[in-house]
Design a protein that fits this description.
Layout (H helix, E strand, L loop, with lengths): L12 H12 L9 H4 L17 H10 L4 E6 L2 H15 L6 E2 L4 H6 L2 H15 L3 E6 L1 H6 L3 H12 L8 H6 L22 E5 L8 H16 L19 E4 L5 H13 L4 E3 L25 H5 L6 E5 L9 H9 L2 E5 L5 H15 L33 H21 L3 E5 L2 H14 L2 E6 L7 H9 L38 E3 L4 H11 L3 E4 L4 H7 L3 E3 L17 H23 L8
Parallel strand pairs: 1-2, 1-3, 3-4, 5-6, 5-7, 7-8, 9-10, 9-12, 10-11, 12-13
Length: 586
């Protein structure tokens, strides 16, 4: 059976049935807390309208951020078709996703033959530099050994045995040696793609875990070890290179991050970088592989960097590329939250300034698991970070000015925030800075770190006075410790409720009782906003019912400014629309 490409055929009956069988095996739970909801925990396990997406979809997004790469799903055709359609709807960009197109026979006898033939087809049609291969529910359930199958593929279809240095040949560096798990070297001089594999069954996580897993796989399988165990010293006039792992952010965010590190004159490898591959210009001819992405040569040099910055307080250690580089190649890891809002952006720019300044000591890592200490900023207006470039200083000043101008519209408002865990943490930080109480912070992820991360960024902003009083009680409530089911909730009303491994059924039940003024999250919350007759401020991924989701800026002072304007004007518009007389001047 010939392997086909995504979008060219519908999923077979076997693909649907086998995938359904795999999903049926997954234990999924709704956590309804007695203390928070006054309800008894249900005696059933199910998910109703999940607040997450499937794991291989995240892997596809990560592979799309590598120059010359083609994402490849080892599974049924329906998986590739669904993900392709989902990604196109948000980014409004064409994307090809290859598939091994498994059918009924493969579900019983294995998909090795289809995998190999599909790789040959992709190599012949696209001529990629790299093929990123992600598993799916079906192939993980039937037990296909991807490492074994790729080893057989190299022996059968790539001549030359086990000598040479394939990665070195591609990146023009013959000094290093590929790390464990890298592509088997050959003597075949014909152009051939590197093969990077990642395990990504949907029943074992969310799209964010698939994203981080693919990024770590790229580093593990492509980063070259330092020469003789030593990193080359930078030239006297040059600054040491750093790695930046931004997480799953928008193309607009990636472009901003590149501008910021350029202002500090820090040579930086950003992985992945889909700022062009998922948000490109209009072209006369459709390129099979769009321009842009992180160069493979740059990934190969990541083990020789002076430091890695990982944006995300909830990234699991086992999926952290920065953690692997620190443990295996001695690249110091700095963990920060997404630079979303004033204080989190301050922390990011403080670190960049210290890395750019010779002889300075970087700030302590921001790790909610206790591995490092947070460098907290007082709840009052913090001073500007040192080493702040002029453009960033001006953007910071404009943000503070806007916060002063608009505080009267936001003070005391209540919001429900949902989405990817690290985005929820960053949004909670921004909202608390603006005077909005995030009464519910919910995510479909289950890192076990969400409650601690939210507490770290907003705990000192919860007032001890009566500024943020509950509508039902006359006293503010601090965050409590994590409760059962990976959730945190206050002992009394008035403080944030924090839910992990959560679906929209649970979010809706809590929102009906908490009576928020607005929702902040992606498009899947629209039906709830419509039911509650409150506005939805769309952020993150996916956004299917508006244009420009890929151009939403979340990060930095500039992103905080745009989100501030969107939130303020959304609330003003609602008040204006609900007015009996209307008004056109404030």
């Amino acid at each position: 059976m010939l392997a086909s490409f995504a979008g060219l055929s519908l999923p077979s009956a076997a693909g649907r049935s086998a995938l359904g069988m795999a999903i049926a095996l997954v234990p999924m739970q709704i956590h309804l807390l007695e203390g928070a909801m006054g309800k008894k925990t249900p005696d059933f396990t199910s998910t109703t309208n999940a607040c997450k997406l499937c794991r291989p979809l995240g892997a596809v997004l990560a592979f799309r951020g590598v120059a010359g790469a083609v994402p490849y799903l080892h599974g049924s055709q329906g998986c590739a078709t669904y993900m392709r359609r989902y990604i196109i709807s948000h980014f409004n960009e064409p994307i090809d996703i290859a598939s091994s197109s498994l059918g009924e026979k493969n579900a019983i006898y294995g998909g090795g033959a289809n995998l190999k033939l599909g790789l040959q087809n992709v190599t012949a049609k696209y001529r990629p530099k790299l093929i990123g291969i992600a598993t799916t529910c079906l192939t993980e359930t039937i037990g296909d050994d991807l490492n074994l199958l790729l080893g057989e593929y190299r022996r059968e279809f790539i001549s030359g045995g086990e000598t040479g240095n394939e990665i070195g040949e591609q990146v023009g560096d013959h000094q290093g040696a590929p790390t464990a798990g890298a592509v088997a070297p050959t003597l075949d001089r014909r152009p051939r793609p590197l093969l990077v594999r990642v395990s990504s069954p949907s029943y074992a996580g969310s799209h964010v875990e698939g994203f981080h897993g693919a990024v770590r796989a790229l580093v593990e399988q492509l980063a070259l070890s330092p020469v003789n165990g030593r990193k080359p010293a930078p030239k006297a006039s040059a600054k040491a290179a750093i790695n930046l792992f931004p997480g799953l952010v928008s193309p607009a965010d990636l472009r901003l991050l590149k501008k910021i590190v350029a202002e500090y004159e820090l040579p930086t490898t950003i992985l992945p970088d889909f700022s062009d591959t998922l948000d490109g210009p209009a072209l006369e001819d459709y390129p099979l592989i769009p321009e842009g992405g992180t160069e493979i040569a740059a990934i190969a040099r990541m083990g020789r960097a002076a430091a890695s910055i990982e944006l995300g307080r909830t990234v699991p250690e086992i999926l952290s590329a920065a953690a692997w580089l620190e443990a295996g190649q001695g690249v110091r890891r700095h963990c920060l939250g997404l630079p979303l809002g004033l204080r989190e952006t301050d922390r990011f720019l403080i670190l960049l300034g210290q890395l750019a300044a010779p002889g300075s000591e970087p700030v302590a890592d921001a790790r909610p698991d206790g591995a490092g200490e947070y460098r907290e900023v007082p709840a009052s207006v913090p001073p500007a970070p040192p080493f702040l470039p002029p453009r960033q200083a001006a953007a910071r000043g404009r943000l503070l000015d806007a916060m002063v101008d608009g505080h009267k519209y936001l003070a005391g408002k209540r919001a429900v925030v949902y989405g990817e865990e690290d985005l929820v943490v960053g949004l909670a930080s921004l909202l608390a800075e603006l005077g909005i109480l995030p009464v519910l912070c919910a995510s479909g992820g289950k890192s076990g770190k969400l409650a601690a991360a939210v507490g770290a960024v907003i705990g000192d902003l919860l007032p001890s006075g009566a500024a943020w009083l509950s509508r039902r009680e006359a006293a503010p409530v601090p965050l409590s410790a994590a409760g059962p089911g990976g959730a945190s909730f206050p002992p009394r009303a008035g403080g944030p409720e924090i839910y992990e491994d959560c679906d929209f059924f649970t979010i809706a039940e809590r929102a009906r009782q908490l009576k928020p003024d607005l929702l902040i999250g992606h498009s899947k919350g629209y039906s709830l906003a419509r039911e509650l007759k409150i506005p939805l401020v769309r952020v993150g991924f996916p956004i299917h019912d508006r244009l420009g989701g890929q151009r939403i800026l979340h990060l930095g002072y500039q992103g905080a400014q745009q989100l501030f304007d969107a939130i303020v004007n959304t609330l003003i518009a609602r008040k204006q629309d609900e007015s009996e007389v209307g008004y056109s001047y404030m």
